[in-house]
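Recall the central idea of this unit: under ordinary conditions, the amino acid sequence of a chain determines the structure it adopts. In this exercise we apply that idea directly, starting from the sequence alone.
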Amino acid sequence: MLKQGLELKQTQKLSPLQIQTIKLIELPVQELEQRIRKELEENPVLDEDVSSSKDEDEAPREVSLSEYKEDDSIPSYRLRSDNYSKDERPQYNTFSVKESFTQSLQEQLGYRNLTEHQYAVASFLIGSLDDDGYLRRSIDSVVDDLSFRANVETTEEEVLEMLKVIQEFEPAGVGARDLRECLLLQIRLCKKTPAVENAIKILKNHFNEFTSKHFQKIMTRMDITEEELKEAMAKILKLNPSPGGQIDDSYTDQAQQIVPDFLLEYRDGELKLSMPRFSVPELKVNRKYADILIEAANSSEREKKEAAAFVKKKLDSAKWFVEAIKQRHNTLSSTMQAIVDYQREYFIDGDETNLKPMVLKDIAEKTGFDISTISRVVNSKYIETHFGIYSLKYFFSEGLENQDGEEVSTRELKKALQECVDNENKRKPLTDDELVEKMTEKGYKVARRTIAKYRDQLGIPKARLRKEL
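Accordingly, the structure predicted from this sequence is:
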């Protein structure tokens, strides 16, 4: 039997202002500037206030529609934000634009005596290399792509022939299909000495043993001494495993520069927090559109009413946008101040041992904001301190107890672990069990699985792979 009935459900709907604020909070300062420029371009009601005068005659007009006859009249609103100065942002440091990796290879290709068909194949191969300079695609897939995407019919043999041409280019090692081939391409250019000959044999015949640091196996199978192995290893370690990284293929200002959202100074024993005031413009209502609203307030003409409705819609959008900028400023400022207060001892001198365990919830409780809001503030934001520039994420970490029952941050534990590894005997590296003992001696209670976890996070290989001759 079917039953029909009404059910009331309470749902929360975000207001346009809340949506705007959430979106703006996530943006770092460079992207905020771009977003404001975009709003200025798209919303004709808004103007950038470039005047420095605060005289009443030059102040933005108050938009009041108390005389407007329609019920949905626009409330009084002054479109102005005083959170930011009008001073132009200091120019970013210029970055040097180097010749791009692809351009360099294409230029070298131009000096080769190739047919038009061969040039097309080789050029496509260059475009298929990754940022490190490797060709990590199969030859048959390159053949297929040349046919379907470039309308160039070729064979695997011809592709391999053109790949060999590219592998003769600078930087040495470019066009390799794996690390072994990359190193071999480079070392074959070295002057032939006993050490170089041994290095070539190691890479050709004993590469797995080399990467696994099974040095004794290599010495036995090649019938060489430890000193001869050391000399060969020294040659290999001078080679570049990432030839494409020698030439910068990056051109964006954002990739080269970090613009801090916050500035923290330590003066006279006090920490002073501020938000750098770059070229975030002050906004006001365009007088022309304000006049349209005032003129339409008592008019019965349909066209003027429609014009006023358009301006009202844009004015509402502008109001929400500027108010969202204010709320973004207040939210970021309150959150960063809470972080500074929580980590005050650390921010005085930057000593990592003073960095307390801190999670998003701790700052959410201090500010009264949701954890999701704190997460948005922390994401992609940086602070400049007197001891360096840091991502806000850097200051958050979980905690463990030391032997005295005091809570210490995981960053402090990782620093202590790194010191243990740095000071170990490289001929006999410490195992994870031995690292547990070393950490215990330093006063930290850490389980073996935790050591393995932190070691992986720090990029520290297992003991066997840290072994040196």
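The beta strands are 46-48, 262-267, 270-274, 283-285, 382-385, 388-391, 399-401, 407-409.
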